[in-house]
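ARCHIVE RECORD
Type: protein–small molecule complex
Small molecule: 2-hydroxyethylsulfonic acid
Source of inputs: curated submission
Record status: active
Notes field left blank by submitter.
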Amino acid sequence: MNSKRIVFITGATSGIGEATARLLAKNNFKLILCGRRKDRLEKLQTELAVMTDVTTLLFEIRNRQEVVNAIQSLPTAWKNIDVLINNAGNAHGFDPIQSGNVDDWDAMIDINVKGLLYVSREILPGMVDRKSGHVVNLGSIAGREVYANGNVYCASKFAVEALTRSMRIDLNAAGIKVTAIQPGLVETEFSLVRFKGDAERAANAYKGLEPLRGDDIADLILFALTRPAHVVVADLVVFPTAQASATVVRRD
Ligand code: 8X3
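STRUCTURE (tokenized, with ligand):
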């Protein structure tokens, strides 16, 4: 297997994206780190550049033209992307549907669904031309089950699930691998964003249990990327041991 594959990671500056970047850097992948926070991107690039080739792309994934311009600006040496990790995404707000904040809805649909599509639309044609590639979409248990106040976040992750399955079919003829990773409770900045900076509410989401960490998910992504050519990890649901479903969680 070519150990110098080029990996494009969205949302690389925190959480699962950052953990994945770190692990893949150690495992000899070349990295295109994408995000909208310049300082964090540069810091991570400097840190990982001692291990592998790293470049960065700064763009707002909600802005289609920014996405297109950024990806098209890649130098020739970085254009043949082998692995696309569609990781960028978040939950914004936790309100019942009847009183949801429409700006939150827009953000989740724009980032989690439309952003994934904008990036994929730019990168997939090259993979199809080369008849080679691997797409890893970060879904969620929220893309398989709904729960109180999850509404639009769940809808956005159900959309990711539908798009992942669709990609698998549409890209099958070109021999492109498509992997879905569907985590449950992972402690990152996720809950802090969902609860708009309320650290106590965010901490409560993981209280009394040992949640997954970004590293746990990065580990599974590395596993999926390092299977032999004839093997694809199609779908991985992963929980902390204390979790049994979106809503059944044992807290001590
Ligand atoms: C995040 C997992 O359970 O908070 O995607 O929806 S959950």
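CURATOR ANNOTATION: The chain has one domain: 6-184+215-238.
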